[in-house]
C-alpha cells in the first residue's frame, strides 16, 4: 500500500516537475480528441437529419371502399405484423376528407361538397424502421387482402438509404483515421517524454528498481494526462457545439427544419469514450514507450 | 566476490571490447582498473552491472552467474552494487536529499527508514547543510559526494566508481578516492575505473591495467612498472605513472593524513556497518571532513 501510494505520488510529482512535457502531451491528446469529437457530433447530426427525412418517407396504403370496419381494422393489424414496419397509422376517410376540404379554396370546396359523397378511401400511413427494407415492406403490403392501392416513393428511400450509409462509412473512417493519427502523435510525444527522462530511468535501473516499479509512475502519468485531456476535450466539444447552435441556428433554419441534436444526450457517451481513449492511450503509450529502456540483454554465446 | 573467467565481449566482428579477460576480486578489496580510452573499462563495468552480456566466458558476482541470471533477479543483483558515474547523474529537479532518497524509494524502502538513513549518509559525506539544495547549486566535488551517498543508500556490498574524478579538480579527485578508501576500510569492495594513472599512484592498492581489451597487468602498484615495462603500449602507461606522480606530488602528504583520519573515524562511523542503530544513536563523524575543506566552490 505504501509502495502504491509512493508510486502514484511519484506519477503526480513527475507531472508537476516536467510541466512542459505534461502540457505538450495534454495539448496533443486534447487536439486529437477535439477533432474526433467534432467528427462524432457531425455524424450524430447527419444521422438525426436523415432519420427525420426518413420519418417523412411513408407508404400510403389505401383500402377498398366497400370493406367493413372490422376488415379495415384487421388490415391494420396485418400491416403492423410485417417485418420492419415501425408504425401503421390509420387515416380514416372522414377526418382525411375534412382536412382536404379545409385546405382548399372556396370554389373547389363547393364543387366537392356538391358531390355529397366522400371520394376518399380509408387508408394506413406506414412508416418503415429500416429504409433498406422499404421495397420489401411495400411489396408485402401489396399482397394483402382488401388493398386498393399502395402509394410509395421507393427511389427517395433508396437515395436516403445510400446517403445514410455513405455518411456512416465516411464519418467512421474519419474518426478511425483521427484516432490512429492521435495514437501515433501521442506515442511520439510520450517517446520524447521518455527520452527526456532517460536519466531517471537509468538511475532507477542502476540502483536495482524492478521494471514494474519503474513503469508504474510513468503509467500513472500517462493515465492522468489522458483523463485530463479527455475531460478538457469533452468540455471543448460541448462549448463549441453550443456556440454553433446559438450563433448559426438561422443558417440551419434557412435549409428547412433542421433540428440539431441536444449535446446533453450524447455528452455522457462522448465523455466516457474520451476519458477511456485518453486513459488507455496514456497507459499503453507509456508502457510501450518505456519498454525499450527496460529491455535486458540475454546471454547468447557466440562461437568463433 | 567478483570473477571474470575468460570473458570476451564483441560488439561486432571488428570491435572486440574485452578479450579473454580473467580477473578475481575478493570481498573487501580495493581495485583500480586503469586504461586509456577504448581499453575496455566501460565494457568491464557494464558487464558487471549486467547492462551487457559477454560474448563468451563467465562472470560470477557474489556467487551469482550473470550468464544464467533470470531477468527478474537482475534488480536484486544491482542492489548489491552502488554505482558512481563520472557525470554524477543526479536528477536536476530533485534536492540533494531526494536524490539520495530516490535510490531507496525506487526499491520500495519505507519512508521512515529513508528519513533516518539519508541524513546519516549526507552527514558522512559532509553534506548535511546542503540537503535542501539542488545539484546545480553544488560544486563538482559536492555533486560527486551526493552520488556516492546515493550509491551507499541501499547498503551496496560493492561500489563501482566509473571515472568518479573525471569532472572534478585534482585536489577533489584525491579526496573522492580517499572517501572510497574509507568505505573500503569499512568492508565495502571498491572498484574504481580511471584513466588518471597519476592519481592511482597516490594510493597503494591493486591496479588492473586494461589495454585494447586485454589485461596487461594486475598487481600492486610497486610491481606495476616492472610488470608492464616490456609491453608496448602498456609500457607507455607504466611510464605515465612516473610522470603522473608529479601531478599529485602536492598531495604527497595526503595518504598519510587520510590514514590518520581513517583511524580516528572508522571506529565510530563504520563499526557495525551503515545500517545499524549506531546511525541514529551515535554521534556522526564526518568522514569527508578533508574533502569538505577542499571541496567548497572548487568548480
The overall pLDDT average of chain B reads 77
Number of strands of chain B: 10
Q: Provide the structure class of chain B.
A: alpha/beta
The total number of structural domains of chain B is: 1
Total number of helical segments of chain A? 11
Low-confidence stretches of chain A: none
What order do the helices and strands come in, and which of them pair?
The complex is a heterodimer of chains A (304) and B (299).
Chain A lengths: L1 H16 L1 H38 L1 E6 L5 H12 L4 E7 L1 H11 L2 H9 L8 E6 L5 H9 L4 E5 L2 H43 L1 H9 L4 H37 L1 H6 L8 H32 L10
Antiparallel strand pairs in A: 1-3, 1-4, 2-3
Helix pairs in contact in A: 1-9, 2-7, 2-9, 2-11, 7-11, 9-11
Chain B lengths: L1 E11 L2 E11 L4 E5 L6 H9 L6 E6 L2 E2 L8 H6 L1 E4 L11 H10 L5 H14 L15 H13 L5 E5 L7 H16 L3 E6 L2 H5 L4 E6 L2 E7 H8 L5 H14 L6 H16 L8 H4 L7 H7 L4
Parallel strand pairs in B: 3-8, 3-9, 6-7, 7-8
Antiparallel strand pairs in B: 1-2, 1-4, 4-5, 9-10
Helix pairs in contact in B: 3-4, 3-5, 4-5, 6-10, 6-12, 8-9
Please provide a written account of the structure.
The complex is a heterodimer of chains A (304) and B (299). By secondary structure, chain A is of the alpha+beta class. Chain A has helices at 2-17, 19-56, 69-80, 93-103, 106-114, 134-142, 154-196, 198-206, 211-247, 249-254, 263-294; strands at 58-63, 85-91, 123-128, 147-151. Chain A has two domains: 2-52 and 159-294, no CATH class; 58-152, Alpha-Beta Plaits. In chain A, helix 2 (19-56) packs antiparallel against helix 7 (154-196). Chain A is elongated and about 105 Å long. In chain A, 28% of the residues are buried. Chain B is an alpha/beta fold. In chain B, the strands form two sheets. A six-stranded mixed beta sheet of chain B has the order 6-7-8-3-9-10, with helices on both faces. The model of chain B is unreliable at 230-286 and 289-299 (pLDDT under 50). The chains are: A alpha+beta (304), B alpha/beta (299). At the A-B interface, helix 1, helix 8 and helix 9 of A face helix 2, strand 6 and helix 3 of B.
Amino acid at each position: 500500500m505504501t509502495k502504491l501510494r509512493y508510486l502514484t505520488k511519484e506519477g503526480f510529482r513527475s507531472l508537476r516537475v516536467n510541466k512542459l512535457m505534461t502540457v505538450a502531451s495534454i495539448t496533443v491528446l486534447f487536439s486529437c480528441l477535439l477533432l474526433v469529437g467534432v467528427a462524432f457530433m457531425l455524424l450524430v447530426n447527419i444521422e438525426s437529419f436523415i432519420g427525420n427525412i426518413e420519418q417523412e418517407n411513408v407508404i400510403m396504403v389505401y383500402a377498398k371502399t366497400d370493406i367493413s370496419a372490422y376488415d379495415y381494422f384487421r388490415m391494420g393489424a396485418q400491416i403492423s405484423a410485417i417485418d420492419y414496419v415501425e408504425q401503421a397509422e390509420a387515416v380514416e376517410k372522414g377526418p382525411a376528407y375534412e382536412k382536404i376540404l379545409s385546405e382548399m379554396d372556396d370554389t373547389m370546396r363547393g364543387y366537392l361538397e356538391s358531390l355529397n359523397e366522400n371520394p376518399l378511401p380509408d387508408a394506413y400511413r406506414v412508416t418503415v424502421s429500416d429504409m433498406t427494407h422499404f421495397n420489401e415492406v411495400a411489396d408485402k403490403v401489396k399482397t394483402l387482402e382488401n388493398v386498393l392501392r399502395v402509394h410509395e416513393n421507393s427511389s427517395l428511400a433508396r437515395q436516403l438509404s445510400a446517403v445514410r450509409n455513405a455518411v456512416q462509412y465516411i464519418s467512421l473512417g474519419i474518426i478511425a483515421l483521427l484516432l490512429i493519427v492521435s495514437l501515433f502523435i501521442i506515442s511520439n510525444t510520450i517517446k520524447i517524454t521518455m527520452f527526456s527522462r532517460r536519466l531517471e530511468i537509468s538511475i532507477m535501473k542502476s540502483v536495482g528498481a524492478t521494471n514494474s516499479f519503474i513503469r508504474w509512475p510513468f503509467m500513472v502519468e500517462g493515465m492522468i494526462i489522458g483523463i485530463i485531456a479527455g475531460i478538457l476535450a469533452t468540455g471543448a466539444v460541448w462549448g463549441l457545439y453550443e456556440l454553433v447552435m446559438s450563433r448559426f441556428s438561422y443558417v440551419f433554419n434557412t435549409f428547412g427544419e433542421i433540428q440539431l441534436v441536444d449535446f446533453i444526450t450524447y455528452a455522457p457517451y462522448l465523455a466516457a469514450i474520451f476519458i477511456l481513449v485518453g486513459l488507455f492511450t496514456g497507459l499503453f503509450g507509456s508502457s510501450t514507450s518505456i519498454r525499450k529502456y527496460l529491455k535486458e540483454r540475454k546471454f547468447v554465446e557466440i562461437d568463433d | 566476490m567478483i570473477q571474470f573467467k575468460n570473458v570476451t565481449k564483441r560488439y561486432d566482428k571488428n570491435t572486440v571490447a574485452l578479450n579473454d579477460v580473467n580477473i578475481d576480486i575478493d570481498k573487501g578489496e580495493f581495485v583500480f582498473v586503469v586504461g586509456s580510452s577504448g581499453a575496455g573499462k566501460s565494457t568491464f563495468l557494464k558487464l558487471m552491472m549486467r547492462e551487457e552480456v559477454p560474448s563468451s566466458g563467465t562472470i560470477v558476482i557474489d556467487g551469482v552467474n550473470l550468464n544464467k541470471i533470470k531477468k527478474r533477479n537482475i534488480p536484486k543483483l544491482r542492489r548489491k552494487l552502488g554505482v558512481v558515474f563520472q557525470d554524477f547523474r543526479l536528477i536536476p529537479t530533485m534536492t540533494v536529499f531526494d536524490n539520495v532518497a530516490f535510490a531507496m524509494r525506487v526499491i520500495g524502502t519505507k519512508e521512515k527508514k529513508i528519513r533516518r538513513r539519508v541524513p546519516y549518509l549526507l552527514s558522512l559525506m559532509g553534506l548535511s547543510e546542503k540537503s535542501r539544495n539542488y545539484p546545480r547549486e553544488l560544486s563538482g566535488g559536492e555533486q560527486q559526494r551526493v552520488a556516492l551517498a546515493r550509491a551507499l543508500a541501499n547498503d551496496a556490498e560493492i561500489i563501482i566508481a566509473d571515472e568518479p574524478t573525471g569532472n572534478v579538480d585534482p585536489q577533489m579527485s584525491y579526496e573522492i578516492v580517499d572517501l572510497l578508501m574509507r568505505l573500503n576500510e569499512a568492508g565495502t569492495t571498491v572498484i574504481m575505473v580511471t584513466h588518471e594513472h597519476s592519481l592511482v599512484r597516490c594510493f597503494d592498492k591493486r591496479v588492473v591495467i586494461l589495454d585494447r581489451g586485454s589485461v596487461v597487468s594486475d598487481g600492486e602498484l610497486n610491481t606495476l612498472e616492472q610488470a608492464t615495462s616490456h609491453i608496448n603500449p602498456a609500457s607507455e602507461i607504466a611510464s605515465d605513472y612516473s610522470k603522473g606522480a608529479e601531478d599529485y606530488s602536492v598531495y604527497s602528504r595526503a595518504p598519510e593524513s587520510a590514514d590518520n583520519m581513517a583511524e580516528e573515524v572508522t571506529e565510530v562511523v563504520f563499526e557495525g556497518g551503515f545500517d545499524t542503530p549506531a546511525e541514529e544513536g551515535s554521534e556522526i563523524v564526518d568522514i569527508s571532513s578533508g574533502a569538505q575543506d577542499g571541496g567548497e566552490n572548487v568548480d
